[in-house]
Amino acid sequence: MIEIQGVTKRFGEFTAVNDVSLHIKAGEFITLLGPSGCGKTTLLRMLSGFETPDAGLIRIAGEDVTRLAPYRRNVNQVFQSYALFPHMTVRENIGFGLRMQKVAAAESARRIDEVVALVALQGFEDRKPGQLSGGQRQRVALARAIVPRPSVLLLDEPLSALDAKLRGQMQLELKRLQKHLGITFVFVTHDQEEALTMSDRIAVFNHGRLEQLGTTTEIYHQPRTAFVADFIGETNLLPADLIDLTGATARVRLEGGLELNVNAAQWPAGLRRASISIRPEKVHVSKQRVACENVFEARVAVELFQGVLDRLVLEFTGGTRLTAVVANESALLEAIHEGDRVWCGLHADDLVVVRTE
Amino acid sequence: MLKTSTSRLSPPSGLRLLNLGFGVWTALVFVFLYLPIFVLVVYSFNTSRLNILWEGFTLRWYLEIADNVRIIRALKNSLIVASFTTLASVIIGTAGAWLLHRYRYRFSRTIQTLICVPMIMPEIVLGVSLLVFFTVVGLELGYLTVILAHVTFCFPFVLVAVQARLQGLDPSLEEAAMDLGASPLKAFWLVIIPCLRPAIVSGALMAFTLSMDELIVTVFTSGLGSATLPTVVFGMAKIGLNPMLNALSAVFVVTTIAFVLFSNHLKKLSAR
Mean pLDDT over all residues of chain B? Predict the structure, then answer.
């Protein structure tokens, strides 16, 4: 559907997007994720036509659009600020794209009604944007962008201005809408939780480069770089040196002297040093010795009660620290508290080896 | 404005006295500003030819204005000049503000300053320099020269008003319009211009008022047939003060104040 080949964009000395290649499938919900300044918005703006790549090629539905003006593309965008036309009513805003396409009045009216119903804005058609709530404006922006039936819908952090509760609601609604319409959604956000909730696939960006492209579970469970592991969800990132690589198991030594067994297949060939990423929920903590490939004794250095979850910082001999998240203490048979000596188990399958830059 | 009313929790008496002092001061300033205008308007209804004694009420001077060919002709000239000046100022000012806002120029700050200079330049300097310029270029003094002269100091007011409005405008609006299929020109016409309308109207009223009232620059740049109302009034006043001038001034004052109030009102609307 969308082919991005070796696209680079510079602003003066700053390289916003650096040699990015990405293939977006028709009808998928893909999220461009990364911290601010990572190039995700610039890439989106090259898809909408507001920026022109310095190098590379962009094809949408087979057509080379690299240098095509924004108003000649069959692509619509939902803007972060919504950018609703303040002097037009909801109806006129939504109908603007059809007016530009010179769609006949009767058909235009029918299509507007259809979309208004789809985003549940009936009864608000004659209001001006100034008379709407944040959530309603968001819906108008969405309706306005989908009514011309674009082949791709671009969404630039459209939910960032909404409060947490409304955002959660809109995430589900967007996902429903995308399934219903079957349009390719390219969604830009810096919120990894949002990305995990909504996307089919996620493209993680950092410093203008595509770090990793994968399904949500791939990105979460098999991050390839330390950046991805750290940016998506929460993780313990521990630098490790390879000390033995025989058979199916690789043995590595952490900085505090702790030695771990990891799956050999995970270890990047030829490297002596990498990082081990351990998700806090994958750290097993118990007062009894647990059966695992890696078992250590530890002391609970810090305990933070967080409602549903209990967050523990474990300290091992040698000073290595690890954050673990366990179900809150009353759910455990034996409560674990600050200062307790505990056993900590780490399955080799849960230890992800990532490259360190 | 100063608040002279004491609050319900009555402040210490010293402060109250100070507040009262400020109140009186404010009142005096307004008396100084508006008393002469008030007297002028009152005397425009005076039967006496002299501006000293009040003899009785009459509308005679207003009727005399209507019969005075010179004044009516000058008024017509003023309206023609002010209308064309406003039209040109709106076009140049709006386009200029948009271009300066939308695109990056190497010397945009300098350009901005240079545009604003005629707003504060002494009128006599502007008048003389324009006269010299028109003579050198070989333009015969007439409507065109007066209008050109007025536009030089009127359009910056439109530009500044529009610029202020543009600063508060969401930069994505133009992109949103283009994203939906509007060419840059259509986006400007259908989306940007309507958003700027209050600022444009307010700037236009400003330009119209300035052009109507302008005297010095007009004296230098108008030919015989294109004399505007202020220049004619000035000429008549040199011969001697006439109650008819009072009446004329009263009309002018009321119209100008109405325009300024309306323009301010629009500015307030556009600030929202």
Answer: 86
